Amino acid sequence: MKLVTEQRDGRTVLMVKEGRLDAHNSGELKDRILKLFEEGGRDLVVDLGDVQFIDSSGLGALLSGHKNAIQRSTGFALAGLQPRVKAMFELTRLQRVFEIYPGLREALDV
Amino acid sequence: MCKTSETILNLDIMVPSQTRYLRLIGNIAEQLAKHLDGEKSDRETLAYHLNLVVTEAVTNAIQYGCANDRKDKIRILLSIENSDLCVRVYDYGQGFDFEAVPIPDIDELSERGRGIFFIRSLMDHVEYRKTESGNVLEMKKRLT
């Protein structure tokens, strides 16, 4: 799974360079998010701009990150959701749970 | 249950019970939906939904299927029967209580349990039952 981490404007950005998040790779995403927090990462932004497909396990990995951020009193935002990916958040009503921005720029401008 | 009298198309697929095959199976289902007649935007949406429900059903079969001599295989049947697009996913394990799977509670933020919710939400008919050839999760979408 290709995951790229960068520091931008004092925030940790995790770019998911995969077209598909499913049960085959979502565990790796979950572990990477947890590791970033454990290493002291703050106010994490996950860029999902390349992700064209997400299943329930992908949503679960992101929820794990969200809950971890709450426990550590830090931020956790999602950016760049493609329309069909966003529709899955809406179907499960998770768009009300996550901090979601149209793109990475908007997420970092906050 | 889907009728079998007017089967227009039938894809019978067997894959190892491993998550690395989810992409392949999902893409086959997606391509099948895109191949159907109708409005392009509708077919694109159906294609995504079919990719998703097949991915969820096969993931479920991998997680819950654990039995005898065929334990390492998952069988997927994709077909167009009458005016329905039918998906059947077979596993050869002990199965699970499909009806007992709850609707995910938005306030609990559980990381699991949304797969069956997707299947129930996006398909018109869903049934899970035990057959002589294994447990089958049968899903049907009306095309007209």
Number of strands of chain B: 5
Distance from first to last alpha carbon of chain B: 18 Å
Main sheet of chain A?
Answer: 5 strands, mixed
Q: How big is the Rg of chain B?
A: 15 Å
What is the helical fraction of chain A, as a range of percent? 40-55%
| Average pLDDT score of chain B | 87
CATH superfamily of chain A, called what?
STAS domain
Q: Please outline the major beta sheet of chain B.
A: 5 strands, antiparallel
Briefly note the structural class of the backbone of chain B. Answer: alpha+beta
Q: How would you describe the shape of chain A?
A: globular
What name does CATH use for the topology of chain A? Answer: Transcription Regulator spoIIAA
Strand content of chain A: 15-25%
How many helical stretches of chain B? 3
How far apart the termini of chain A lie comes to 29 Å
How would you portray this structure in words?
The complex is a heterodimer of chains A (110) and B (144). By secondary structure, chain A is an alpha/beta fold. Chain A has a single domain (6-100), classed as 2-Layer Sandwich (Transcription Regulator spoIIAA), CATH 3.30.750. Chain A is built from 4 helices and 7 strands; from the N terminus they run E-E-E-H-E-E-H-E-H-E-H. In chain A, helix 1 (26-38) runs parallel beside helix 2. In chain B, strands 1-2-3-5-4 form a 5-stranded antiparallel beta sheet, covered by helices on one side. Chain B starts with 6 loop residues before the first strand and ends with a strand. Chain B is an alpha+beta fold and 144 residues long. Chain B has a single domain (7-142), classed as 2-Layer Sandwich (Heat Shock Protein 90), CATH 3.30.565.10. The relative contact order of chain B is 0.20. Chains A and B meet through helix 2 and helix 3 of A and helix 1, helix 2 and helix 3 of B.
